[in-house]
Each structure stands twice: as structure tokens, then as C-alpha cells.
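Supplementary Data S3. Sequence and C-alpha cells for construct A.
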Amino acid sequence: MQGEAGKSQGAPEIVALGADSKGLGSVSVIAAKPAVAELERRGLDPAPALAEAHLMAAALESFDNRLPHAAVRALWEAAARRAGDAWFGLRTARDLPAGDYDLFDYLLSTSATVGAGIKRLISYARLIYDHTNLRLLIEPGDARIVRRVPVTAPQYDEFTLALLFVRCRENTGVAWKAHQVTFQHAREPDDGTAAQLFGCPVTFGAPQTEIRFAPSVLELPHAGADSKLLRILTRHADALLATLPAPDSTVGRVRAAITRQATREFPTLRSTAASLGVPERTLQRRLAAEGLSHSTLLDEARRELALRYLGNAALSVTDIGYLLHFSDPASFHRAFRRWTGESPLEYRRRFYSS
């Protein structure tokens, strides 16, 4: 079996792996990438904004990575200052190319209607932010998308609500307008930028962030609805959701990070620490406090994946050993017998005969 390798790269320790009063959990790297891309689109170097947020550019390379919410909040504010644009979040949402929000753009656009798309996004919102509390409320006169957070992130909060609004309009081809928009964070009175984008009055410093619109909007059909593609995307989203840990579980986060990495490369202590945004020694220390190690969790993840893969008749035992990053078939066979007391072929025959 391959071992762990590598020394700490000295990454800044910016947040604990679990939720805390300042960090407030983790966010998908997808939430950070548009801010960097917008700076680059404007011909600005994003490095100073990343440095101000204590983020390394390498942490944004993989879509599987998750970043501390505090760091993403800081990145969006730093990007707005770097651009000299008080409405950076809104304008980034307005101009973001279709598909650049990855899986979530397509889960929305392939849904049959605006309402179906919003409900689907809400059901998978934890993939973007593990402490989300986004809700859709339908009342006689208004449909409301509501969110209330203990710590606001002005630029990022404006980006997320504006992007949802923009995408829903783009997908229908109908220029519907909101009735009212409110944001929790305070800012100078709207100079018309926000009101022009949403097509309605926008209030800041409200008890919660929300957008109100006619319930009939929920019935508008999406031009790109595709039930077959949606089923594929939903299965993928379900698989990703299953890898997410409980919000406050350090061990769960590490397990999920290892499982995500194992689908494309051998997870090392270094790569797992980098995906979680903490130094290797910090990760080792926190796992040791739980009586665990990275190698133990890696072994467990490989075992679970092996059992899952053996249920797929299209994969040979040799293929599975390769997918799990074993150096040769014999190494995989030895590991599997240690895990289960039988060979992979014996397990597969028993699986299909039961």
C-alpha cells in the first residue's frame, strides 16, 4: 500500500476544521472562483486579494476543495477594494458566463421550471455552504427566497442572491422583476445599481436577506429543461452530498476530503490538509486528539470505495485496484483480505448471489 508523503508547506492556519463563531464553517471553492475570475477579466492581478484573505491560489485549482467561510468572505471584500467597485458582487453575478457556477448552474437550468430549479438548488445548497439556511416560502401574494446569517458577507451575499435572480431570468428568457429585495448588511443608500439589476426597491440593514416576487414566476418554464441530463446531474449531486460531513465534525470533514480526492489521486496528508486549508501538523494534531490518524481514515475510505466498486459489474478487480491507487493487484488483494477476510472475487460472487 502506498504511504503518505510530504512536509508541511507552511500554509497559514486560518480557521478550525469545525464551525466556530468567526469562521462559520466551510464553502465550496466554487464560491470563491468568480471573484478571482472577475478580477482577471478586468485585467487586475488577484494575488493581493487572495493574500489579504489568507488564501493560496493553489487552493482554488480543484473544484473539490472547500474553503473557510471567513476566508471567502474576506476574499470578496478584498476583490471589491482591488477593483475599486462598491458593487463588485452584483456586477460579477450579472456578467458571470453561463456554466461558470459549475454543477449548480446546470442543476438549475435543466430543471423544468423556475420553482423546480430553486427547490432543487436549495436541497443541494449544503454543497456550496455547509451552514446554509436558504428557504423558499410561498404565500398568496409573494414567493420569497429567504436567508438569515449571524455574520454578513456584503459582496458575497449580494453576488449569490443576484446570481440566482439573473440565472432564473436567463433560463426562462422572461425579464421578470422582483417585488422587493432586502439585505442584512448595511451600506450606503443604493445609487440605483442594485435597484436597476433587480428591477425593484432594494433595502439594506434589514432583519434578513430575501427576494420577493410573484408566485407565478415559479411556474415559468426553463428553455433548457432536460429531464435525462437532470437525472444524471442529480445522481452526481447526491453522491457529493453523501461525502459531506456533519457541520461540526472534524473527522467527518477529513473523511469527506479523502473520499473526494481518492476518485482522482492518492490522498496524502499534504493534499488533504491543503484541501481543508490547514497545515499538515495542525491536521495531524486534531486527528490525534480524536485518537485517529490520516492513514487510518485513508484505509477506511479505500475499504468503503472498494466495496462500492465491487458492486459495479463493469469494473474488473484489476480496474478497482487501479482506481484505489494500489501499486499492483497483489497489494489490493492483500488489503481487501485484511479488511473483509476474503478476496475481492469471493466478495463479488457472494454479492451477486445474495
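Construct B, processed identically:
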Amino acid sequence: MNVPEIIRQSWTLFEPDLQAAGYDLVEVEFGKQHGTRVLRVYIDKEGGITHADCQTVSQLLNPVLDARDYIEEDYVLEVSSPGFDRPLRKPADFERFAGEELKLSTHTALLGRKNFRGILQGFRDGLILLTSEGANVEVHIENLKKANLVR
């Protein structure tokens, strides 16, 4: 299974259980870190994330991962808070953090480039709205590769 499929499958499997437990699934990443494959899951909740929350979620997700066994290679599960440079992925994220600065990259070029930095204006009709270098930019959510707050 390729990396995008592992990430898609993880979102599908994890999000309902995390929501039921009171957590918001912020992002899923799968890649190598210091020679080890890492499945990194970012979570959030009202009031923020503690180390105990990360342990709880790890204990919640491990049986799901063991039962589904969709990742063929050895890996380590890491559960983390979204951190200072929080990733943005869902429409609700782009509405919630309107007015804040963000960095954004796209899959395909838009206005001759793939990387933008600017002020998030919100989300409307499938479009992420931002002001970058004095211009209004609209990025379709399907074209979003990565977005993070800049704090």
C-alpha cells in the first residue's frame, strides 16, 4: 500500500473512534524518521492536549491498527498534539483560524507557484481563501498538499 493510501485508510479508521472519545483528528503522516517508519497522528481537543491524552489515544488506536493490519512494513505509532505550527486540513480548520498567518502548498501550481504564505481569510464553497503578497488567493481544498499556521 502506498503512502497516500495508508494516510487515507488511517483517517477513515481513526476519525470515528477519536470523535467518540472526544478528540479531533488534526492530521495523519506516514514517513521515515531517523531510518524508522513512523505513523504520526496529531490530535486536539478543547483545552489542549496533554501527555496523558497522547497515551490514551495510542492505547485506543493500537488495537485498531493490529486488527486491520493494513501497513505492511514495520512502523512506530506516534500520537502528538498539533503544536505551535498546527496543521490545517479540514474546512472547519480554515474557518476556525481565519485571520491567522499560514503557509500553504498545493499539489498543482496556482498563479504560477505551489507555495503561499499569507493571512487566512476563511473557507467557502470548497475554497481556502487567503491574502498573500497583497493578492486574494483561492485554493481548492482538493489541491491542498499541506497547510500550517505560522506563529
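The mean pLDDT is 95. The two ends are 35 Å apart (CA to CA).
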